[in-house]
Amino acid sequence: MSTGTPASAEVLSKYEAVIGLEVHVQLLTKTKIFCSCSTRFGDPPNSNTCPVCLGLPGALPVLNREAVTMAMKAALALDCAVNPRSRFARKNYFYPDLPKGYQISQYDEPLAEFGRIEIEVDGARKRIGVTRVHLEEDAGKMLHEGFADSDSRSYVDLNRSGVPLIEIVSEPDLRSPEEAYDYLTRLKTLMLYLEVSDCNMEEGSLRVDANVSVRPAGASMFGTKTEVKNLNSFRFLQKALAYEIERQVEVLEGGGTISQETRLWDSREQKTHGMRSKEFAHDYRYFPEPDLRPLAISEEWKEEVRRSLPELPQARRERFVREYALPEHDATQLTATRELANYFEEVAKATGEPKLAANWILSELTFLLNEANRDISQSPVSAPNLAGLLVLIQKGSISGKMGKEILAAMFASAKTANEVMAEKGLEQINDTERIIAVVREIMAANPKQVEQYRGGKTATLGWFVGQVMKATRGQANPPLVQEILKKELS
Amino acid sequence: MELTQLTIDAIREGLAARKFSAEELVRAHQGEIERKDKDVRAYLSLSPERALEQARKVDRQIAAGEKLGPLAGVPVAIKDVLLTKGLATTCASKILKGYVPPYDATTVARLESAGACVLGKTNCDEFAMGSSTENSGFFTTHNPHALDRVPGGSSGGSAAAVAANMAVASLGSDTGGSIRQPAALCGVVGMMGTYGRVSRYGLVAFASSLDHVGPFGRSVRDVAQVLQIMAGRDPLDSTSADVPVPDYVAALGGENDLKGVRVGVPKEYFAGLNPEIGANIEKGIDLLVKQGARRVDISLPHTDYAIACYYIICTAEASSNLARYDGVRYGYRAPEYSDLHDMYRKTRDGGFGAEVKRRIMLGTYVLSSGYYDAYYLKAQKVRTLITRDYLEAFEDVDVIVTPTSPIPAFKLGERVDNPLEMYLADIYTVTASLAGIPGISVPCGRTKGDPAKNEPPLPVGMQILASHFDETRLLQVAHAFEKAGRFEAA
Predict the structure, then answer these.
(1) Complex confidence, ipTM
(2) Is B21 a catalytic residue?
(3) Is B421 within a domain?
(4) Catalytic residue chosen out of the listed positions B47, B79, B93, B173
């Protein structure tokens, strides 16, 4: 598809990208949207099914109230107006993973509209419009591999059929892959905060399609868009968008035109490919779902959901900066998930040292969690235990270096700092005699430095402290070391 | 005592007085089926064990002096579009040949828990699409009054079974007249309640916003008793109404005085019909007036648009409802195919009959992008106008009386080649379906017949309509009419 040489940065800068995202988020309800089957992931194929989600003759959908509540939470958190009346519609198409031959979705009367997400562009806030949030059911899954006869047959697993989804459609307000990345990150954070989804891209609970077009910089008309699918990670999203923008610019620069089509991102080739028109030329023949009444949402229900909303990431971020005097960057990282923010607040409050808490959580603890491939909710070091460790450091009872060692042991054993220290014999050396002995040894071995100190270069005290700590493997009580050093050196 | 000609009341009394057992009753009906059904062909399949098992249970209850269900021992027939657990349910379609559902329709379950004995499943037009039962994918049912004529449709088998004493009562489905019209043509009582009055769960969908389940019987009182059991909210059907169910049977009273009842006679329903039928209905109205009712001539001005409106909406919904018969999970699959699309095509081509395919194509067309507004949306607006006609009329009248069908039972094969003429057989019944109001067809004399043309006297049906959820009034008027003698000798 690419025409000739890749577009140079100079050529690219003559164009502006216009991007809109369609994000599907799987809701964390216990049961499916139109029947009482479990939504659990990973169960044996077709075990969580019933006449309704199998699309058997005569079965009828009954709307799950919890799904509506969760969708409403998301919509309200996105600043949407929730429609007092919305309607389900049938989206008709044939595919083996779609047992009824139609998907129950929402079309011209969605649950909610006119929302927004604020992203950051070059340090400034930018508002990205959210066109709509609507509810729909998921389809099943085709299994093309892993069976003895997979070369000649495909299998269908309908466990996912009828799992509730919300589709969040953005306005075409995004102008770069970076903006799209930021938008999606904030959207994900928001959903995690609301606890309406686990947003696990690998399990398909967060799915993204992008509408992409380019136009000459400064133009107000939209160019012809393509829809890019198969973006199943944040990284792919950014790469695919960058590729697609460049591809479109190249086509236009080469005198060609963009054809409106669906393109798939191929992560191996790092390219988007147009799908054969047959595969996407659907006329979905939407019409109102006659098996369900229009969805009426009372003011009371809406307000009840609004009251149940937790403090949202942006508000919490701002509060962290204000209340704990944290740098913007730390506050953003700490508010990435509700669990992490809760963890931080617990440690900050218990220690009275928010900056210390932030540092330890974002560096040491995060490192250990990443190593173990765990998230904060699975941390073997509880917030009170981390606070216990930080208090010891704060009091000077242990050095920072020792603290790191202890934290690693706490992480491995889920024990408290004191327990670890007792076990490892890592208790602090507060024995004056022992420290004096070490100090004298070091002074004897370094006469030149002693000379310098006595000659008025008192700044070398720090060097001596370091030597003592090294010699005691960090176990010596640092204030005591200082005190003894001063006495011995003078 | 002739065990196959009893009313439900007579069965209740007879069982209580031990004049006969439930098993004898069921066996008597099985005998009648054995004798007559080779000619009438009302049943697609029989369920002798299921019926006898239920009858023996009733007999045990009687022996134990237990309280009996309201329909204890009543032998019934079920249209083959209603699901029966463990008993093949085919919708008279090759595409569902041999399909055994894993659950019972709510209506069937309610009947059986009231003690009814299911004799078997009755023939109908494929997926209830037709007005003569000639569209059955298996064979045609004959009118018991004249075997060379149609029983009407689509619930022809259920009407014929009751007319020929091969069941005391039966269930049918009515989308545009499929209970009322065959009731008229077979000389029995057939009723559909208000849309939402009776659960559709387990009724194989044809046109969801129009589909009803309703009873056939040989008397209004029997029909009221069966409706009583089925009516009421079903949590499995979101469109079933949460409206209290009155005691229909108690409200029937005895010799009812119709004093003060205003009977609306819409002029649009008396043009272009068979003159003998018109004359019979006029006589029927006179009979009501003699009982104290007041005749009010009214107009339902949008009647002319009803057939077009109905055939757009029902085909649109059908095209979607029948998408699930795709050969993937159950039912017929073409034996040979080259790929998925070829499998779909060959399965649906081989599995569906001509009328079903015609309606799927019509429905697909009217929902297609570019045509939706002109057809489906316009039809919805017309539907609103037709409903408004009725609502306005019911401000001035209590019931509306019309002929059920413009023609008596026609000869087999007479109309099969002219679908449009067949569609016009529904001309008097579709408006009530579109408006969602309840309707009943009661026998109203017979045509004179013409021995010279070898034409026997044929049953005529009078349709009575009432306002939403006013089944009580409908049944009262129908019952009074029946008690006044139906002027069998007309």
Answers:
(1) 0.95
(2) no
(3) no
(4) B79
